[in-house]
Amino acid sequence: MRKIFLTLFLLFVFSSTLFGSELIVTVIDVGSIGDSILIQTPRGKNILIDGGFTDLGEFNDFWDAGKDIVIPFLKKKGIKKIDIIVASHAHADHIGGLIDVMDEFEVGEVLEPGYPYTTRAYRKFLEKIKEKGIPYSNTKRGDILDWEKELKVEVFSPPKKFFKGENACNNSSIVIKLTYKKVSFLFNGDIEREVEKNLVENYGEKLKSTILKVPHHGSDTSSTVKFLKMVKPECAIIPIGKNNTYSFPNSGVVEKYEVLGIRLYRTDLDGNVSIRTDGIKYEVKTETPHHFGRTSLKEQPKVVGGDIEKFYEYAEKGWTLMKNKKFKEGIEEIKMALEINPDSSDARSKLGYGYKKIQEFKLAEKEFKKAISLNSKEFYARLHLGLMYMYQYKTYKTDIALKLFKECLEIEPEGKYTEMLREKIEDLGKEESEEW
Questions:
Q1: pLDDT tens-digit profile of 35-63?
Q2: Which of 14, 202, 203, 314 is a Cys-bridge partner for 336, taking CB atoms 3.0 to 4.6 Å apart?
Q3: Which one-letter DSSP state was computed for residue 64?
């Protein structure tokens, strides 16, 4: 009897060691722009959502996240087989790296939304699946994925009928809620505000998740306040590369997460972000030391009356109007937002931009300065104030413009406006030399 007990005990210990009881989710820092997320299940399965960016000659950028980052990362983990690949959608910064991954590892199955896309990266991706003979299927809203009996895996999007419009590929992204006992994750590719609204309407409180993968790399196309308030995450992770050319994440989006009290991690600052959970508690580990909050804010923004949802409703509507060149209407909406939250550096910066576009330069200057005083790393207020000083106050404020442009490059050494800023600095430097 003693021997039987000992044998059973050893089998229990062996099976616990072999399979463990933890779910581990790692958001991989794939550089530049793109997503790649490794899920290691309690019973030892490896699931990879996306593989980062690979150019394949389409963008004159020969970065290969699959070969240079994802494959070495997986090998370091001792992984020999990927049980399931989930390609969230057909953009090269999500599926590009998966092509090399499929060459390097045995893959059990590939899931993707099936949105018809005509890029070279997507064609190569489909060709590689066929070449390797990997079982392949499209997944849609309402599917329940059988990953492991301890895990509940629900597909919330895309619907059977794809969203239309210029952002249709992003909005075709697979949205998965993964639940392990009391801890849940919401993965969502690059969904934008239209899908967020649709998810809120169709799923409501079912969206509530412990951990959120921030949609679309922290772009202002996504992370609407109604969506975030319905998900109610304790923490969120932005997969984004340092000094990326899109200037992601958007500073207003970062501010929004802070105002809502959501602990925010970013792969550009934190490196790989790993979450380990036994289904009851969870632990977040970062590759580099993490500092909570954004130190650039002088203090946590205060929302008068606590009406956060109303503040963002006005702010988001105002910015949408401005992007559609309806500046006066946009200004009024953002002014209403600032009555609720006067300490939003992002809203101040956007109001300044609106005033600049209707040539109310004194009002623009006031708002840009206020934005900078609220957030020492406010990029766009410096950029537009510098441009305004360079062209509207050319005779006596070019020295301040030069200082502002230099500060912009200190805040964001590489980004969407890097080349333009360097040109402006060079031009203003020449003017100063000529005057001297």
A1: 999 999 999 999 999 999 987 655 545 67
A2: 314
A3: B
CA 285 distance to own-chain centroid: 18
Nearest C-alpha neighbor of 407 from the set 368, 370, 366, 379 = 379
* Residue 379, token pair as written in the block: 């990029």
- At 311 the three-state DSSP class reads helix
All domains of the chain in start order, with CATH: 19-286 (3.60.15.10), 298-370 (1.25.40.10), 378-436 (no CATH)
CB 108 within 8 A of CB 84: yes
Say if residues 26 and 37 touch (Cβ distance below 8 Å): yes
Report d(CA 291, CA 220) in Å as an integer. Answer: 23
Per DSSP, the chain holds a count of helices (H) and strands (E) of 18, 16
Write the CA distances from 121 to 92, 117, 341, integer angstroms: 6, 9, 44
pLDDT tens-digit series, residues 332-382: 999 999 999 999 999 999 999 999 999 999 999 999 999 999 999 899 999
